[in-house]
Structure to design on (388 residues):
């Protein structure tokens, strides 16, 4: 009898027997995975150790909570930090009964607006409210900043949360989370509108929106990616920061600008969209440019020359990093001028002072106070004239 040609038959030696022995094991494995998934899903629905602000295409803001945590990682900040969120999911006082008669103001932005590492009462929106309330007694101001959100996420926040509240004014501090961004950011990518998405993407969005396990896994993945891109809060010591031996040449800057052209145009469209969303719903928009510690010149506290300090995970020197951020700030300035929107040029008005920043973009308590002072001086007269 000749040898069997297994390649021709498509069977392996001992095929039927081997398949029959493997099948029960696969069934048992599938059942184990299914039971484990169901158990974990049930557990996460009872106790969610990692509450997420985004689930599927919907914002889920934590409401009526008070978090007190010990600060051991940022030496120049308070040792104990208190963060309270009201019934709206914002930082600030509850909505008053006579809300409709108030000059209601919301501040919208990313981590430099939320100020997660500054206790209640010390964030720049808190201090801004205090400074303005002496001359605007009917003011009600809340901090709607969300750590990590870019202008993509701000659009969803407006549609899903802000517009239904009908505030009189929304102040946007924007820019840093949009640098180089051509798609949704890590923190707000789940908010993408999947109306025109592929069937696979719609199915993925449906699973994430309805499964605690899938949603938690996705948010852990986003946190990991955020860390890799340097979008987390980190302490900066200018005296020991790495330096480059030269700044970028004009030719390198030109090439870099070419690489950012697409992102800048998308950012321009999104800023215009935010303005349009506000105005079409009877809300007065105000724009603020993004300041940073990196840039040019000598920092007065440490005496360090900022130009050559490596200030991004991309290895850009301080002068180049500031040049890039200013391209995005220019979009805000140009949009304000073209759309007749009030602009606070905080990027130019806030000094590059080590006492004001605990890393290259996030404010210390002193920095928050300086921001509030600048914004109050620039906006006070404008806000007092607005109709109630």
């Amino acid at each position: 009898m000749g040898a069997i040609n297994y390649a021709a038959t498509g069977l392996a030696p001992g095929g039927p027997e081997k398949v029959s022995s493997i099948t029960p094991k696969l069934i048992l494995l599938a059942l184990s995975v299914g039971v484990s998934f169901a158990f974990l899903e049930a557990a996460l629905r009872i106790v969610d150790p990692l509450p997420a602000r985004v689930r599927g295409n919907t914002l889920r803001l934590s409401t009526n909570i008070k978090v007190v945590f010990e600060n051991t990682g940022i030496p120049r900040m308070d040792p104990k930090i208190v963060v309270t969120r009201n019934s709206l999911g914002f930082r600030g006082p509850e909505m008053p009964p006579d809300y409709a008669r108030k000059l209601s103001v919301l501040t919208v932005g990313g981590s430099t607006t939320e100020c997660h590492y500054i206790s209640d009462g010390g964030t720049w929106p808190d201090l801004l409210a205090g400074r303005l309330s002496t001359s605007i007694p009917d003011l009600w101001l809340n901090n709607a900043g969300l750590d990590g959100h870019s202008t993509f996420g701000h659009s969803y926040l407006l549609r899903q949360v802000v517009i239904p509240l009908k505030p009189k004014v929304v102040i946007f501090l924007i820019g840093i989370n949009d640098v180089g961004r051509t798609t949704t950011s890590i923190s707000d990518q789940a908010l993408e509108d999947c109306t025109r998405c592929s069937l696979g993407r719609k199915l993925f969005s449906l699973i994430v929106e309805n499964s605690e396990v899938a949603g938690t896994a996705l948010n852990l993945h986003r946190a990991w990616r955020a860390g890799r891109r340097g979008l987390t809060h980190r302490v900066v010591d200018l005296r020991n920061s790495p330096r480059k031996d030269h700044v970028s040449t004009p030719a390198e800057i030109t090439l870099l600008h070419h690489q950012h052209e697409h992102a800048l145009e998308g950012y321009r469209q999104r800023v215009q969209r935010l303005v349009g969303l506000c105005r079409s719903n009877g809300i007065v928009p105000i724009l603020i440019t993004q300041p940073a510690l990196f840039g040019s010149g000598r920092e007065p506290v440490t005496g360090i020359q900022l130009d050559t300090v490596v200030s991004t995970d991309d290895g850009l020197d301080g002068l180049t990093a500031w040049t890039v951020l200013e391209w995005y700030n220019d979009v805000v300035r140009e949009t304000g001028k073209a759309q007749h929107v009030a602009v606070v040029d905080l990027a130019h008005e806030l000094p590059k002072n080590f006492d004001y920043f605990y890393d290259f973009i996030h404010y210390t308590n002193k920095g928050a106070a300086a921001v509030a002072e600048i914004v109050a001086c620039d906006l006070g007269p404008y806000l007092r004239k607005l109709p109630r």
Notes: The two ends are 99 Å apart (CA to CA).
